[in-house]
């Protein structure tokens, strides 16, 4: 009898070792090495096999390019995030915190596709068929083209896909599916890698769109090996607070469209509903005439979104003042506060500082720098900002205000929502015509911006 060989695999990054180690040498995580049985290497597969034809190198000019066939759903926001609809033969990974609404979203999308005459197969590895039916009843889903299969064995799932030949498949979730030829437990690195590879082959060979749900770790990334995100065509993150009604669907990878596109959805008793104008949602509860509040036009994917930046400064009682930021990078906040102290003469080293992006949105582009600086200065001086101002610009370490991209779209979005003034970098002033209903003020330094926004 052949000796059984084993290996130890890191459940965080997929690193393999012939012996157990307490700390993974690749990702530096502790207690992540799990024993798994060695499986024989199998021959790879072609993603687009054609019987009788061998794959050969060809000049790129001789390859025929054509538009991918897309299927649109009733959620216009989801169509935009995916680049114009669901591409046939694509493999889409969607991740999010437990209870955020991933299963609800995909069940609603499945229903919309089924109503258009497509056969949809919903694989539930975490719930029974009755539990899925209860959710469908709550969402008022009643269609004969939606099939539910509570199964975790990949071979049974593959057989069901072959028999039904659906146009759309949902796997909920990938961590519960296991390949019968792999000895390790479901959810392990080997299982996730092999099952995803098999599903990718099915999607490409049968030209069927497959959505797979992935669990996330406490750090917010997809659980399992990083190769999982590299294998799929699109990666979507479903974000939001569980106690907040609004959800953000963000594309972080998309081979068929733009990345960093976002869709705003609202969770209601009847399911998720799309928000047509997210800027109004983020600004509807804004208090006018409040110190420490500014509005910035941030670009999310291909469209501008107006969000409110809030800052609160208070004298500290500690040797080291506290700095906290929600929805914006902490390092960016500390950098801007250092620039304010050095270049604008604000003595804020003895102040606790708390910054927040209202509405739960996360912004990470440089164009929000100037709005953060004005918010901090407004709270420190206890001087309210003008409620009709929109502030846009990147701040450099020498106190200069640098140009940002797509300024015309940002200013037009501000004008559309009734803002009367836009404070922007002076280098962005030329080459375009601002709307007549908004006054555009160009500034070149952070001192000029504070003068324009706060009067000094």
TrEMBL record:
InterPro entries: AAA+_ATPase, DNA_repair_RadA, P-loop_NTPase, RecA_ATP-bd, Ribosomal_Su5_D2-typ_SF, Ribsml_uS5_D2-typ_fold_subgr, Rubredoxin_2
GO cellular component, one term: cytosol
Sequence positions that bind ATP: 96-103
Keywords: ATP-binding, DNA damage, DNA repair, DNA-binding, Hydrolase, Metal-binding, Nucleotide-binding, Stress response, Zinc, Zinc-finger
Superkingdom of the organism of origin: Bacteria
Chain positions of motif RadA KNRFG motif: 253-257
Alphabetized SMART domains for the sequence: AAA
Region (Lon-protease-like): 352-456
The keyword Hydrolase is assigned to this record: yes
Swiss-Prot/TrEMBL GO biological process terms: recombinational repair
GO molecular-function terms, A-Z: ATP binding; ATP-dependent DNA damage sensor activity; damaged DNA binding; hydrolase activity; zinc ion binding
The UniProt record lists the keyword Zinc-finger: yes
Family: Belongs to the RecA family. RadA subfamily.
Domain notes: The middle region has homology to RecA with ATPase motifs including the RadA KNRFG motif, while the C-terminus is homologous to Lon protease.
HAMAP family cross-referenced by the UniProt entry: RadA_bact
The name this protein goes by in its record: DNA repair protein RadA
Gene that this sequence comes from: radA
């Amino acid at each position: 009898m052949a000796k059984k060989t084993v290996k130890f695999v890191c459940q965080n990054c997929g690193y393999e070792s012939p012996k157990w180690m307490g700390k993974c040498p690749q990702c530096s995580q502790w207690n992540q090495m799990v024993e798994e049985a060695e499986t024989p290497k199998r021959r790879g597969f072609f993603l687009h096999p054609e019987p009788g034809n061998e794959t050969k190198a060809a000049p790129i000019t001789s390859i025929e390019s054509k538009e991918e066939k897309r299927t649109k759903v009733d959620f216009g926001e989801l169509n935009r995030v995916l680049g114009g609809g669901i591409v046939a033969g694509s493999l889409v990974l969607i991740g999010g915190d437990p209870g955020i609404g991933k299963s609800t979203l995909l069940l609603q999308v499945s229903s919309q596709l089924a109503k258009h005459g497509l056969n949809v197969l919903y694989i539930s590895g975490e719930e029974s068929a009755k539990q899925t039916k209860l959710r469908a009843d709550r969402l008022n889903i009643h269609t004969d083209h939606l099939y539910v299969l509570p199964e975790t064995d990949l071979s049974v799932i593959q057989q069901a896909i072959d028999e039904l030949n659906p146009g759309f498949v949902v796997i909920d979730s990938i961590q519960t599916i296991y390949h019968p030829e792999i000895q390790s437990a479901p959810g392990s690195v080997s299982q996730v890698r092999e099952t995803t590879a098999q599903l990718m082959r099915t999607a490409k060979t049968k030209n069927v769109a497959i959505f797979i749900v992935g669990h996330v770790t406490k750090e917010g990334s997809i659980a399992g090996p990083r190769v999982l995100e590299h294998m799929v065509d699109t990666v979507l993150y479903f974000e939001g607070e569980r106690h907040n009604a609004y959800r953000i669907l963000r594309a972080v990878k998309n081979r068929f469209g733009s990345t960093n596109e976002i869709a705003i959805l609202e969770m209601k008793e009847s399911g998720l509903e799309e928000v047509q104008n997210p800027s109004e949602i983020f600004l509807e509860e804004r208090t006018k005439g409040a110190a420490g509040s500014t509005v910035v036009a941030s670009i999310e994917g291909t469209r501008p979104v107006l969000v409110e930046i809030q800052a609160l400064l208070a004298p500290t009682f500690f040797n080291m003042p506290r700095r906290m930021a929600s929805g914006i990078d902490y390092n960016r906040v500390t950098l801007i506060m250092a620039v304010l102290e050095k270049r604008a003469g604000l003595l804020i080293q003895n102040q606790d500082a708390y910054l927040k992006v209202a509405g739960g949105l996360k912004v990470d582009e440089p164009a929000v720098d100037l709005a953060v600086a004005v918010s901090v200065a407004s709270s420190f001086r206890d001087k309210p900002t003008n409620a009709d101002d929109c502030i846009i610009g990147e701040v450099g370490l020498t106190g200069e205000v640098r140009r940002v991209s797509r300024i015309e779209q940002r200013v037009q979005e501000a004008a559309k929502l009734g803002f009367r003034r836009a404070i922007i970098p002076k280098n962005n002033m030329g080459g375009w015509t601002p709307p007549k209903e908004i006054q555009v003020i160009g500034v070149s330094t952070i001192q000029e911006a504070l003068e324009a926004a706060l009067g000094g």
